[in-house]
Every structure is written in C-alpha cells, then in structure tokens.
HEBP2 protein (Drymodes brunneopygia), 246 residues
Amino acid sequence: LAEESPDSAYHSHGSSLEEEAAERMDDEEQERLLNYWQSVGRGHQVDVPRDMAEPIQQLTRNNNPQERQSIPFTLIQRKEKLGDLLYEKRQYGKAKWACIKMKEKQYEQSICLGFMKLMRYICEQNSSGLYLGITVPIVTIVHTNEAQSAMTQAVTVAYYLPEVLQDQPPHPFDSDIIIEEWPATIVYSRSFRGITNEDSIMREINLLAAILESPELCLRDTFIIAGYTNPAAANRHNEIWFLQRP
C-alpha cells in the first residue's frame, strides 16, 4: 500500500473536521427550531414531539417565498368600498388535496396537530421519499351550526398537492391522511390578520356574511380558513372563504 502523504492526510482530516462542524451546526439549528416550535406549541396546549425536528428544519429551510407555490385561481370580481378591499370572488379548479380530520378540544390544537402530520407527509414521509414542496395557503374546513353562532369541534386540515404531483400524488405513510379530489368551486374570500381561534373565526364569518349581497348563495354551515403563514407565526395572514353552493 502506498503511504499517505502528510498533505493528503491533512486534507482528508480537515474535510472530516469540517463535516463534523457542519453536522454539529446542523444539529444545533434543528434543536433551536424544535425548541421554538415546542414553546409555541405549549401556548396552544400542543406537545411537539422530538421526531418533528427534521420536518421542521426541512420546512424552515425551504420556506422562502420564491419556493412556495400558490394555489391557482381565476379572479372573478373584487368588491371595494372607499379604496378598501371588502372581498374577492374567485374560481378554484378541480384538484387533489392531502387531508386530515382533527377533533381536538380547541381549534388551535386541531390545526397545529393536523399541520404537523401534514408536515411529515410533505417532508419525505411519503411513497416518493421526496420533499414535496410547500403550497399556500394551507386550508382548514370548519363547520358551524345552522344559525352560524358556534363552531363544531371537527375540522379538516388540507394541503394542496403541487401541480407536478396532481396526476399521481405520493401515498402518505400516515393512514390518517387521505388524498381527496375536490371539485371546482367558487369562493368569496376576505383577508384578516392575527391568531385563528373559535372567536376570531366566528367574528370573520359574521363580518363577511354582513358584507355579501347574497349570502344565501353560499353554504350556511361550511367555511374555509386559508392560512398563508405557519401556525407558529404571531401575526398570521389568513382568509375566510365562503363556498358558493354547487
């Protein structure tokens, strides 16, 4: 065997030291992000398990606005008053979504836990073994009683599959996640900021119902909360969607 020169020995040793340092920094970043999510989770009475460290890190690294794919829609109408946008009427096409039904005591718990399950699916826990990419918004289907005075506990958190995966969506490893095809839908959308909980959602439902000229054209007990920022963000950008009756 040829002897290893001191120079090559230095380079191989140096590169392994660099790799070790990079791995250590990687672990530290993972730990920092996990700690942050765990502290936010506690605020929502949600336990963020250690096995979420890698999906959280993947999602954070890939969460540049340029990397996110917006769900395509056709704008039908913008309703304004004194320069303020009251709502938009949009048409969304038929598409496949990864959905998970949740029924925690509080809405915030349901969306945090549902979002974590979807994150695992997005971050390689699927039959393709690949990172699927983030699409926005992540949506939550909520239901109210007929009088629109209270929300029911059951919600569905859903992730729109990127265009390239629409024909053949990767199969989720988590049996709670179901791939559903949603029909083309017309929605009336109004944006709002801040946290989403039972009170803020009921307030936004009543507000949009009062603004719409013909609220009777929409479903009375099914609404969608569209989230453009992750549930850990403080000042979230959200929309309330009313669904036009088929």
In short: DSSP finds four helices and eleven strands in the chain. The helical segments are 6-43, 53-61, 107-122, 198-211. The chain has two domains: 14-61, 69-244. The first helix runs from residue 6 to 43.
